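Thread: assembly with ligand

MN 10:42: here's the input set. Chains plus the small molecule as SMILES. Want everything predicted jointly, not piecewise.
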Amino acid sequence: MLLKNPFAMEGRWFKGNLHTHTTNSDGAWSPDKVANEYRSNGYDFLFITDHWKVTDISGLSQDGFLVLNGAELNIGPSELGYHYHIVALNLKENIPSNSVSNAQELINLIKSKGAFALVAHPYWSGLTVNDIQNLNGHIGIEIFNSTCFFSIAKGHSVIHWDDLLCKGKLTWGFAVDDTHQHYNDHRPIDACNAWIMAKMPELTEDSVMNAISSGYFYSSNGPVIHDISIQDNIISVTTSDVKIINFIANAHNGESFTAMDGKPINSARYKIRGGEKYIRVECFDENGKTAWSNPLLVNF
Ligand SMILES: [Zn+2]
Ligand SMILES: [Zn+2]
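BT 11:07: finished. Tokens for the full assembly:
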């Protein structure tokens, strides 16, 4: 089954970060400064997601820049005894930390408040695929998290994602900053580093919530995916100049295209063979920066 392709949809691309801390939890910048930095770096929307606290966002949105509510909530235990971190997007009221007893109850509670649950940084949290495959009702997982990458090199949770897809769990993959504005002499700042590009008719709360829950976006911390189209069982991709374009599928399926002769590539085509349970696209530039599409089709 082909999934709805955001590259074929009407609308334009809006850039956003879904995971942001401020001085209202353990971030270094005030909500005002965080909003200003993201706006001046070309972002269109920003969720502020302090730990266990819905930050007051009044006055932070401007013409062409939308700030949305949220919070990050954690609860254990996972299979290995750690905590799940769950980002509650569009959460407008605080949830008391003692109100639920496990991750599924937390997701259910988030949903009951009209918010969406996103499973944060699985690799950093020490979550296994077993932990996530039994959760229902969330919109996806973070497949890249800037602060987890720059702090302890556990920013990528792409194998968790592929395991979930291999198990038939349709899951959207999000790149986020989780910015705390932390940095030092061997650690770059974690702000304005990764994002999603959401295809939307307009920049409104409803449009953002619809795009992120329906998979109408791709993720990046560098490359641009210009287009993805599927015709006659051929997937065609065009990107900014990159070194590698991958078509990722279950197990041994899929194909990788690497630039040869030192020249970058910016397109690739893949013929669907028939054994793919899902296919997603990712590309890497020469600095290792990556863009990730969501799954384009599923055959569960
Ligand atoms: Zn966290
Ligand atoms: Zn966080």
